[in-house]
Specification:
296 residues; alpha/beta; three-stranded parallel beta sheet; three-stranded antiparallel beta sheet; 9 helices; 32% helix
């Protein structure tokens, strides 16, 4: 059930793999408007737990772009790179009650979706390095309602079994870090791109094992190019021009099928106040991805 408006806490959690582009602005804007429309708190968390993929200086550029677009957050930015002790505590808790096992599978012999090949869970990994996985019962099913995508059901034990929570290289897995940090920050609704919809069942399962609250979820469509590819650094998405913040925000609102603020609103802050008042996720289609529609 939705929580009381006065307790709403949302967040935007980018990975510093490059500067913000229009696709990431869309996710940030949806999260920001959902929080501000409910009179709630909006936090920014930097998911910097994968150094090999990170771009030097990207964290600062992302924060600068958010501010240039009037997306001002509440409280200090949380950096996942400082949270190792919390992740270790969660792993210890899972291990004490037998939910973890070591896995030394290589990519060549992994099962569907990167699952364990099926022997490590019973025998334990005898060689190093090894990853840590969560044991998921075969009959485990996760059901939840998504504000935009509707009712969701995942046969987790069959479709995404025994997923990794700490990698072979010792880095913490996204699934673990996001659950621990959402609980620590008191997040009540997660608004993010639909490319992360598949992660939700795994995160809910971890929340259940760790005794964490399960937030509400809203997965908005992701922006694709003319070839149906998600806007991303890997697909050469151009970085945002921070000097064109109002135009960028209007494009993002158009993509989210939100009413366009008046043309006389010529600063990001004024434009966002109007967009906050008219925010409604009901206008968004359930499509997982969309090209940017023509503004005519």
């Amino acid at each position: 059930m939705p929580r009381d408006a006065t307790s709403y806490v949302g967040r935007f959690a980018p990975s510093p793999t490059g500067p913000l582009h229009l696709g990431s602005l869309i996710a940030a804007l949806a999260s920001f408007l959902a929080a501000r429309h409910r009179g709630g708190t909006w936090l920014v968390r930097m998911e910097d737990i994968d150094p090999p993929r990170e771009e030097p200086g990207a964290s600062g550029r992302i924060l600068h772009s958010l501010q240039a677009h009037g997306l001002h957050w509440d409280g200090p930015v949380l950096y996942q790179s400082t949270r190792g002790a919390a992740y270790d505590t969660a792993l210890d808790a899972l291990g004490r009650v037998g939910h973890l096992f070591s896995c030394d599978c290589t990519r060549a012999n992994m099962g569907p979706g990167g699952s364990c090949c099926g022997t490590c869970r019973n025998t334990g990994a005898a060689t190093a390095p090894s990853a840590l996985r969560v044991a998921v019962p075969a009959a485990c099913r996760i059901d939840f309602d998504d504000v935009v995508q509707g009712a969701q059901s995942c046969a987790l034990g069959r479709e995404l079994p025994d997923f990794i929570v700490r990698r072979k290289d010792g880095l913490y897995a996204y699934q673990l870090a996001v659950v621990v940090d959402d609980e620590q920050q008191g997040i009540t609704e997660i608004v993010r791109g639909s490319d992360l919809l598949e992660s939700t069942a795994r995160q809910i399962y971890l929340q259940q094992l760790l005794g964490c609250r399960t937030p509400d979820y809203m997965h908005v469509p992701v922006l694709t190019d003319g070839q149906g590819r998600k806007f991303s650094k890997q697909n050469h998405a151009p970085p945002l021009d921070d000097t064109a913040a109002c135009d960028n925000l209007r494009s993002a609102l158009h993509f989210l099928r939100q009413p366009q603020p008046g043309s006389d609103l010529d600063t990001p802050e004024r434009l966002l106040r109007a967009a906050t008042a008219s925010w409604s996720p009901r206008h968004m289609p359930q499509s997982l991805s969309l090209d940017l529609p023509s503004r005519g």
